[in-house]
Amino acid sequence: MIVTLWHNPKCSTSRRVLADLQAGGHEVQVVEYLKTPPDRAALVDMLAALKARPADILRRRGNDDLLANEPAGGYGDEALLDLMVEHPILIERPIARSPKGAVLCRPAERLAEVL
């Protein structure tokens, strides 16, 4: 089974998920999404696979400067998509996708849901 992993090698959770996939003998398609950011269509597709909205995968930690102008009620889906496409660091990681579905692997143990 091929598992696609939206990965950030600087993230310990992402490294752990990748190591778990490799140790399990899975074929892994690694997408370093900060080097090769998803376009809007790819992001929308991944959100559909996750059955999630943009706010569900928004990485707030360490991104106060990018979110400083957030409206009082928060960003809507379209505005968040625009921000995530422009600043992929706002996408929480790691995200694993297999033929069984997709999951944000926070915590890393959630990987089992798609294996």
TrEMBL record:
<keyword id="KW-0059">Arsenical resistance</keyword>
<dbReference type="InterPro" id="IPR006659">
    <property type="entry name" value="Arsenate_reductase"/>
</dbReference>
<keyword id="KW-0560">Oxidoreductase</keyword>
<dbReference type="InterPro" id="IPR036249">
    <property type="entry name" value="Thioredoxin-like_sf"/>
</dbReference>
<dbReference type="Pfam" id="PF03960">
    <property type="entry name" value="ArsC"/>
</dbReference>
<dbReference type="GO" id="GO:0046685">
    <property type="term" value="P:response to arsenic-containing substance"/>
</dbReference>
<dbReference type="InterPro" id="IPR006660">
    <property type="entry name" value="Arsenate_reductase-like"/>
</dbReference>
<dbReference type="GO" id="GO:0008794">
    <property type="term" value="F:arsenate reductase (glutaredoxin) activity"/>
</dbReference>
<protein>
    <recommendedName>
        <fullName>Arsenate reductase</fullName>
        <ecNumber>1.20.4.1</ecNumber>
    </recommendedName>
</protein>
<comment type="similarity">
    <text>Belongs to the ArsC family.</text>
</comment>
